[in-house]
Amino acid sequence: ETRVREKARLLDVPLVGGKNASLGELLRHLGAAGVRVPPGFATTVAAYWDFVDANGLRALIETTCSRLDRQALTLADAGRTIRDGFLAGRWPPATADAILAAYAALAERTGTPG
Asked: For site-directed labelling of 101, which of 30, 46, 92, 109 has its Cα 20 to 30 A away?
């Protein structure tokens, strides 16, 4: 789902996650006080799960956390394993296209070359 809104709100947590919604609230309430946040765009929670599922990461996360729970793996090793899985992942084509389009719009809006 693509929705354009100037600033995310706390009501948008199910759509864009807590961090993105909190940044939107920061901009909304503290922007007039001079608090600055670089321009950007938010990917959706659905896009995150599409990435996770397209790359089989749920199983990796579950297996790694199970090994961590059994103390068969250190926290640092578990984090590295999951992080490596994410870094090796590929965006599903439709999601990649949407992210590239949002990035191009951001570059145009800010006058920054892509």
From this structure: 30
The Cα–Cα gap between 68 and 102 comes to 37
- Tell me how far apart the alpha carbons of residues 63 and 78 are, in angstroms, rounded to a whole number: 10
Between 45-54 and 57-69, two packed helices, what is the crossing angle to 10 degrees?
80
Query: 58 with 32: CB under 8 angstroms?
Result: no
| DSSP letter (8 states) at residue 32 | G
Count of C-beta atoms within a 10 Å radius of residue 8: 24
CA dihedral angle for residue 23, residue 28, residue 32, residue 35, rounded to 10 degrees: -10
Per-residue pLDDT tens digits for 49-92: 999 999 999 999 999 999 999 999 999 999 999 999 999 999 99
Sequence-ordered list of residues with C-beta below 8 angstroms from that of 92, at least 6 positions apart, any chain: 50, 51, 54
DSSP 11: G
Residues 6+ apart with CB under 8 A from 50: 92, 95
